[in-house]
Structure formats: structure tokens, C-alpha cells
Amino acid sequence: MPHTNTIEISSDQPTTTTAMSFRDQLHALYAPHQKPGHLSFTYGTAGFRTLASTLDSVVFTVGILASLRSKYLNGQTIGIMITASHNPPQDNGIKLIDPQGEMLEASWEAYATKLANLGTEEEVFAEVERLAQNLGIDLNDGVSGNVIIARDSRESGLALTKATIDGLKTMGTKVTDYQLLTTPELHYLVKCINTQGAYGEVSEVGYYKKLSTAFRNIYENFVQSDSKIQITIDAANGIGGPKAETLFTEYLSQYVDFQLVNNQYQDPQALNVGSGADFVKTNQKLPNNITPEPLKLYASFDGDADRVVFYYVDSNSVFKLLDGDKIATLLAGFFKDLVSKSPAKLSESCQIGVVQTAYANGSSTNHITDVLQVPVVCTPTGVKHLHHEAAKFDIGVYFEANGHGTVLFSESLLSLLQTIEPSTPQEQRSIQTLIEISNLINQTVGDAISDLLTVLIVLSIKQWTPDNWDESYTDLPNRLAKVIVPDRHVFKTINAERQLTSPKGLQLQIDDAVSKYNGGRSFVRASGTEDAVRVYAEAASKSECEELSKEVCELVKSSVGL
Ligand code: 16G
Ligand code: ZN
Is Nuclease among the key words of this record (predicted)? Predict the structure, then answer.
């Protein structure tokens, strides 16, 4: 288990000269972190993400910005995660985590982008002064900000951590380096610190304890089985592997028989290669190194373990994917049932909702609205958008089809659960299960390990095999294609990315194409993480789906003169 380094940088700084001191520190530290002239960077859907070798100057400025953010929020702790998630080994990235464990507030993304693109020490200094003044941050108050930092298992992670810490040093920020963590572990720790431990103990052990205690309580009380749960996990050769291993071996070995494959996290070149949630979802096939047994459940994490997808092969050895949409329907149905079996005071007031993106398979949306009778909201791609919508429900289930997601419980529901009096054993059971699941699921962000435990326990309670789960609905055939265009920024969308407003006229052509296919649906959006445009298509049959996809790709190309 990695130890942590607490680096207190500025305790001996004279408090009255912090502004000067920022200037001096910047001067002392800036030179090796100067931005190469020809590069430009954007704080995108999930922070900065690109080739690791180009990121040094960016992370240095993120260190400065995180310091400002913490000072702006009266010293609350900000998280910095160095990861490029499911991207290939040569990439890396950095993102900021706000005090309650949520993604950085959107208005600050623009500040991050601005700072990252400045080319000289003078420009950086002037911009920081300007920002501080506009935001009412006193650079002279002698109060330092607080930051915790961690990284995934990429080779470039350590050097980028050091460069980030140099950025933090310019402002005398207190920083604790948690070294190797999954992204959701860091989100958890940020929230624990800022809630003074109310969300959980401020340590990795605290994270394991919180999850395993909830899992054990549910299992002991509500699972009727004399055999252990079985699961095989493809860890994408990322940091989720050793973390899951610790959790299952040290805390849950009585209940779960687990097997880890693609667990070479010490070999950074293997990260996400032929493995992981993105590989499985995109290629709709098994990762390397799994020889499947029919009807057994498998799961794949991504490189920083904030997303998970499940799959199995049926009795005819056909591969079946259980993606984020299937997780959302499983959980929404489970909660709907629990709530309906709760005391009237709860069942009559509790609003359950599911949040999806345009990538959700049409069948899943129909199933949730028509069969489960739970409302569905659609948001733009990216966890932060889904998270904010989910927070509007008492139980907000949000999942992207790619496996990013979690469940949020409202404060009012959580306090009602603590005080409500059950009048039957069934009501008692429902209340208890809801309380425990609210502890089992990581409410700060999608978490592969916590989602995995939640799915395993729900399947065990329901005594469902993977094919019982899969049977709930059948996905419409779908295809996600990529078109490389000269400038993806001309593709502008409205209506949660489902309609284009630019290039002019293209949406009408797409609508026209879609209308020719049974059950057809298609949308086009610019990627937030790659220099490309994505084209999604679905239709009643595989051949219609392929044709629709091709047709829309052609329309996209000709709209930009290709
Ligand atoms: C990022 C997002 C993910 C989204 C993906 C879309 C977070 C933590 N991650 O990985 O949710 O699905 O981008 O990528 O928000 P795209 O814009 O390239 O299609
Ligand atoms: Zn990820």
C-alpha cells in the first residue's frame, strides 16, 4: 500500500510578503516549465489530456490554479489527479477535483485553459494577479491553499507530479502526495477531508473499510446463498488492479472469489492495451487473456478505474456486453422496487431518475421509461453534466453507455432513511438496503470498484445470473464511427448533443437519412478528447444500422468539403 508524502512547502515564508513571494517563487521555478511556443491546450471534458511529453508546462500552471482555487474556497482542499484514463500509455492528463469530490466548476475550466497557454513568466504572473483581483483572492493574506495529489500507473506520472508540485510551491500551497491511486479514490479522499471525516475516514484504508463494511452488511443480511460470488476482472493493466486485489483479499475474501487478469500495472507499456472497459465496449469483444466460461460474469475497468463494463458469453458462446446502460437499468429497477416496498412516507415522496447521454441505446431508454416507469433525462457527454442532473433526484442513477457512472442520494432522503419507522420486516429490509447501498456506491464520481461491488450485491440479492440481467431488454444494433475533419469545432450541437446547428443544413440532411431506416437514430458531435467528429447510429437491424452510419459519415464529410 503506498505511503503518502506530506510536503509542507511554505511554513517558514514571511506572511506579509506572499505576493512578492509568489513573484519570487515563480521566478525561481518557472524556467524549466516554460510552454513550448507551438503548442496549445484546452481543459476539455475531463481536464487536459494529450501526449505526456508535452504536458510539463500545463501541469505546472494547474498547480498554480489549484492553489488559487483552494484559496478562493477559503482553504478547502482541492484534488489533482494525473491520469489519461483509457488513453494509450504515451498519453497523460491532469484534472482538478472540487471540495465535495465533484469535477472542477465549469467557469474555472476557462481560467485553466488561459493559464496553460501563456508563453512567458511575465504573462503567467500578470494573469494570476488579474485572476486573483477579479475573484477577490488576497495573494497577500499569508494563508496557503490545500491540495492533495495522486496519479495512475503511467510512466510519466511521477515527473508530472513533480512539475505540478513546483506549480503549487509558487503559492506556498500545502500538498499531500498520495502517489498511486485510482481516480475515484482521490475523489473520495477530497470529500472526506472537506467534510472533516463525515463522508469517511481520510485514508485509503478508510475507503476500503467504507465499501467493504457496506458490502458485508448487505451480504450478511440480505443475500441467501451458500456459495461465494464469482467474478473475473480485467484491470486494463492499470491501477485499479492492485486496489481491487487489496480490497477483495484483505476485506471481502469470505464473500467473493475473484480473479484478476491484465493486472500488470507495473508495466506501463501494457496499460489499456488489448484490455480494459474502452477496448471491450468499442470492439464489443473479450479483452486479451480471458478464456470465457459460459454464463460466468466478467468485468473490465479502465486505466484509472473510474469506469466498468460487464460481459459474459451465453450457452452458445456468443459474447454479450452489459454496459453502462445495462448497469443503469439494473440499478434503477432495483431502487424502484426497494422504494415501492418502503413505508408510504418514503415511497410517496422519493423521486427516482436516470440520467443518460445521447449514446444510450434507444432500447435502454424505452425500457427505463416504459417498463420501469422511471423518468430519463439526457445530458451532454461527460461525467460532470450527468452528475449535476442526477443530483436533482432523491435517487439519481447516472451512467454513460461506456460505463462511467454512479448513484446519488439526496440529503433529504438520507435523513429520512435514518428516522423513518418501518412497520413490517419488508419495510425494514428496504430501508436498511438503501442505507447500505448509499455507503457502498461512491457518490463523488463513477468508481469501477464501487460500481462492481454494487452490481455484484444487487445480482446476488435478486439471485440473477448474467443472462437474467441481460434479458431485461435487447440493444438496438448500433455503431460509433469517427470522422477526421479539418476543424471539429465547426460542429456545434444543441439539445444535449442530439442536434447540430452547424455546419448549416447538415442536421436536415441527417434527419432525412434517419427517416429512411426502421428505428433509425443518429447524431453527430465533436469529440471533447480527440481531434475528431463522432457519428453514432442505431437502427432496427444490423444492416440498416451499418448503412445509416455510412450515410451519415458521408454527409459529415461533404459538409466540410471532404
Ligand atoms: C471523457 C469523459 C467521459 C466521456 C468521454 C467522451 C469524464 C471523467 N470522462 O473521457 O465521461 O464519455 O470523455 O469522449 O468526464 P469524447 O468527447 O472524445 O467522445
Ligand atoms: Zn477513466
Answer: no
